[in-house]
């Protein structure tokens, strides 16, 4: 048992914190929202220079060779600043899919390019009808001319609008909700037969609806047997997002404390009121419990037993989800009216945490899976 | 960063588990499993077995008969002991009095009291709270006046757990009512419960048990050599005592063991025509408790592994998080157990019912302690600094409010 950070981790944390303090003040971030592409290409290049885009990529493929804890710490820093760039979509979801599904040639083709900031990926798995159920895939793949073509649609694909290439799941066999018969494909962002409708989510991050009608696709990984890979990708996403929620909670907690100490009512700071002090203490308790669960998520990614890994990830998703909801709801409440305004930062954090809770299985969905396993 | 236990830590856990498995008397374990509080003799028997192994004074240095464990080992030991389930080591002796004497006591006091406290040859109780001094402990009024080589003690303590079992009481008394600050006129005294003028009156709690007491002191003569630390400096001794050794504060092993018990009984009782264990609502409730216990387990690891690294030796204010969440879980799991029992958990096991329970048993063996345990644990968020006081501590020490 060891909770210390390595020197590398500390240095990474400091350099990222410096960069974001300079480049990601709330007003700077606001300028990126609503203007295509909805994030900063210049910063994306800076992340590549700093080695952030290669953080979890093995050194042999031009990466930093970091682990899940490194990603958690980086995501925590991103969460504090509500970073908009497609890090999660590309470096976590996309690169995990390539690593889990691809042979050496595919990894050589993609991973160095990802680390260099030259290739953006998106992970297109969930569909309109599937909600959180990962076996519920209706999109089909049919062999054609030595390759494959895809028919169907994908929903709320994170950063699906800007991805150079998309990792798309489709059925090569089996029927809806069957574990067997799911395969993974690569589809070019500009492929014919792929229609992408990009939009902002409620927190300002980008996503897309995909329509696939005869889009050319390249099979990666084992045919019919990609579900364990999809699970791995989703789990990596949950762990990374858990780190982001911790960062967002830290920011909300800090803002709220500052507000409690400075906002005057009845001739004294509102933080003099014990009702509000105790709420702030409860937020701290929730945040620390959530932080513990984010650690659990990061560490359990390397757990070899799939059932145990899935269980820990579900526990973490529930724990972080509940902590995030409690902290963000109360951060807005303790701010009062100003917390409801779009011009104030706390509501932006609130929305990021809200969006994250509804990705990759919400609290109720994961709690339900845990309930299945009670014995 | 690594959440996994090291090989050495795992081996240590196995060693502790094996020792408890092989040495905890079966009838004690069985009573504990059914939720009964340990009898006085159970606590004594078990603590002496542990002491013979050198483990009872688990937090003390080797010099005074402790095993010299680090914080992680202490945490593992306490968790194994609770989840066995075995009687808890008497905290008044081991986690309160012992470290205080080791830190503040004279050589004579250490030699006189520590071995007997470790072996539970003498049972200690804590004379802190008074009718007018609960959360505001420093406003206590019990008076000690020095006359020659004795203090004469007059006053009243309340909520004194196990005072009726106790041979000795460590007590906060006011030695200087004129002090500028109320904290500055308090002293820490060791009082022999057999001294004339000490009177213990029972308080029956809502679970029907006699655990709490009022203790009255009328012209009680206490030799001056029973003063611990300096006169009028007892508040720092008390603060040390309250802040010391928070490793076991979450009592997580107990919550885990109670969830196991609830699941066991839930296989036996039914809901809508099937075993309760198969009921969705029950399973979701268990899953939620297991999530909360997992989070607390990791938070506890974080706090505990920081103890040994803390340079100033002061308690991490985050141990208040452990107290708050730990007691919420003790309460949540005891509610679960009671709700599993349902109507069979409701009969009051007084003499009247006990007299009816010759073979065959009138009620299931798991039923008698479900409601009392739930009722008694309502105190968990009150004692040891109420959870509201813990929130005040977090506000002051962490949040700066």
From TrEMBL, chain A:
Keywords: FAD, Flavoprotein, Oxidoreductase. Residues 122-208 form the Acyl-CoA oxidase/dehydrogenase middle domain. Belongs to the acyl-CoA dehydrogenase family. Residues 239-374 form the Acyl-CoA dehydrogenase/oxidase C-terminal domain. The keyword Coiled coil does not apply. Its cofactor is FAD. The lineage of its organism: Bacteria, Pseudomonadati, Pseudomonadota, Alphaproteobacteria, Acetobacterales. It comes from the Bacteria. Signal peptide: none annotated. This is Acyl-CoA dehydrogenase family protein. Residues 6-118 form the Acyl-CoA dehydrogenase/oxidase N-terminal domain. It comes from Siccirubricoccus soli.
From TrEMBL, chain B:
The keyword Nucleotidyltransferase does not apply. Residues 125-220 form the Acyl-CoA oxidase/dehydrogenase middle domain. Signal peptide: none annotated. Its cofactor is FAD. It comes from the Bacteria. InterPro entries: Acyl-CoA_Oxase/DH_mid-dom, Acyl-CoA_Oxase/DH_mid-dom_sf, AcylCo_DH-like_C, AcylCo_DH/oxidase_C, AcylCoA_DH/ox_N, AcylCoA_DH/ox_N_sf, AcylCoA_DH/oxidase_NM_dom_sf, Mycobact_Acyl-CoA_DH. It holds the Pfam family Acyl-CoA_dh_M. Residues 6-119 form the Acyl-CoA dehydrogenase/oxidase N-terminal domain. Keywords: FAD, Flavoprotein, Oxidoreductase. The keyword Flavoprotein applies. Residues 232-398 form the Acyl-CoA dehydrogenase/oxidase C-terminal domain. Belongs to the acyl-CoA dehydrogenase family. This is Acyl-CoA dehydrogenase family protein.
């Amino acid at each position: 048992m060891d909770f210390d950070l390595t020197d590398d981790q500390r240095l990474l944390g400091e350099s990222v914190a410096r960069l974001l303090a300079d480049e990601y003040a709330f007003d700077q971030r606001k300028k990126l929202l609503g203007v295509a592409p909805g994030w900063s290409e210049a910063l994306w290049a800076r992340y590549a220079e700093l080695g952030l885009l290669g953080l979890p990529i093995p050194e042999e493929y031009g990466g930093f060779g970091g682990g899940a804890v490194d990603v958690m710490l980086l995501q925590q820093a991103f969460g504090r600043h509500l970073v908009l760039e497609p890090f999660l979509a590309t470096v976590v979801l996309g690169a995990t899919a390539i690593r889990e599904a691809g042979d050496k040639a595919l990894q050589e083709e993609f991973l160095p390019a990802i680390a260099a900031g030259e290739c953006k990926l998106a992970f297109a798995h969930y569909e309109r009808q599937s909600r959180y159920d990962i076996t519920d895939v209706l999109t089909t793949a049919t062999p054609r001319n030595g390759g494959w073509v895809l028919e169907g649609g994908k929903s709320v694909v994170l950063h699906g609008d800007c991805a150079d290439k998309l990792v798309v799941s489709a059925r090569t066999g089996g029927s809806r909700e069957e574990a067997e018969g799911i395969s993974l494909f690569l589809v070019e962002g500009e492929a014919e037969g792929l229609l992408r409708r990009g939009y902002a989510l409620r927190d300002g991050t980008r996503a897309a609806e995909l329509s696939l009608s005869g889009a050319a696709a390249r099979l990666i990984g084992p045919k019919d047997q990609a579900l364990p890979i999809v699970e791995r990708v989703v789990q990596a996403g949950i762990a990374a997002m858990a780190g982001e929620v911790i960062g967002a909670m830290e920011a909300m907690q800090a803002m709220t404390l500052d507000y409690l100490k400075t906002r005057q009512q009845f001739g004294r700071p509102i933080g003099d009121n014990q009702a509000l002090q105790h709420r702030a203490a409860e937020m701290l308790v929730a945040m620390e419990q959530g932080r513990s669960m984010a650690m659990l998520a990061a560490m359990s990614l390397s757990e070899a037993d799939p059932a145990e890994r899935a269980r820990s990830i579900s526990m973490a998703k529930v724990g972080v989800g509940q902590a995030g909801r409690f902290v963000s709801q109360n951060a807005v409440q303790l701010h009062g009216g100003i917390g409801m305004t779009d011009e104030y930062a706390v509501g932006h954090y609130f929305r990021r945490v809200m969006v994250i809770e509804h990705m990759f299985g919400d609290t109720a969905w994961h709690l339900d899976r845990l309930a299945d396993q009670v014995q | 960063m690594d959440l996994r236990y090291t090989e050495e830590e795992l081996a240590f856990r196995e060693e502790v588990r094996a020792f408890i498995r092989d040495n905890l008397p079966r009838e004690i374990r069985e009573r504990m499993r059914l939720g009964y509080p340990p009898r006085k003799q159970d606590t004594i028997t078990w603590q002496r077995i542990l002491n013979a192994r050198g483990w009872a004074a688990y937090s003390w240095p080797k010099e005074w008969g402790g095993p010299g464990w680090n914080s992680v080992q202490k945490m593992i030991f306490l968790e194994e002991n609770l989840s066995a389930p075995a009687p808890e080591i008497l905290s008044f002796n081991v986690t309160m009095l012992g470290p205080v004497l080791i830190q503040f006591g004279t050589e004579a006091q250490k030699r006189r009291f520590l071995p007997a406290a470790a072996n539970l040859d003498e049972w200690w109780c804590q004379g802190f709270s008074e009718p007018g001094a609960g959360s505001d402990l420093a406003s206590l009024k019990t008076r000690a006046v020095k006359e020659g080589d004795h203090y004469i003690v007059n006053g009243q303590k309340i909520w004194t757990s196990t005072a009726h079992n106790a041979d000795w009481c460590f007590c906060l008394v006011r030695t200087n009512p004129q002090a500028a600050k109320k904290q500055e006129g308090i002293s820490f005294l060791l009082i022999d419960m057999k001294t004339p003028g000490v009177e213990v009156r029972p308080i029956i709690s809502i679970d029907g048990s006699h655990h709490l007491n009022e203790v009255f002191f009328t012209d009680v003569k206490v030799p001056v050599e029973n003063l611990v630390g300096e006169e009028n400096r007892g508040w720092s001794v008390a603060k040390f005592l309250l802040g010391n050794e928070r490793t076991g504060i979450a009592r997580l092993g107990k919550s885990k063991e109670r969830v196991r018990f609830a699941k066991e009984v839930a296989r036996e009782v039914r809901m809508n025509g099937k075993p309760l264990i198969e009921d969705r609502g029950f399973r979701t409730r268990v899953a939620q408790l297991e999530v909360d216990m997992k989070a607390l387990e990791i938070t506890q690891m974080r706090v505990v592994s920081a103890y040994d690294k803390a340079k100033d030796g002061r308690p991490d204010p985050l141990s208040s998080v452990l107290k708050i969440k730990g007691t919420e879980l003790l309460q949540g799991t005891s509610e679960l157990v009671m709700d599993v029992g349902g109507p069979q958990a409701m009969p009051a096991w007084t003499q009247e019912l006990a007299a009816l329970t010759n073979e065959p048993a009138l009620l299931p063996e798991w039923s008698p302690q479900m409601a009392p345990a739930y009722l008694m644990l309502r105190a968990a968020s009150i004692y040891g600094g109420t959870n509201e006081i813990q929130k005040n501590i977090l506000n002051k020490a962490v949040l700066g409010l």
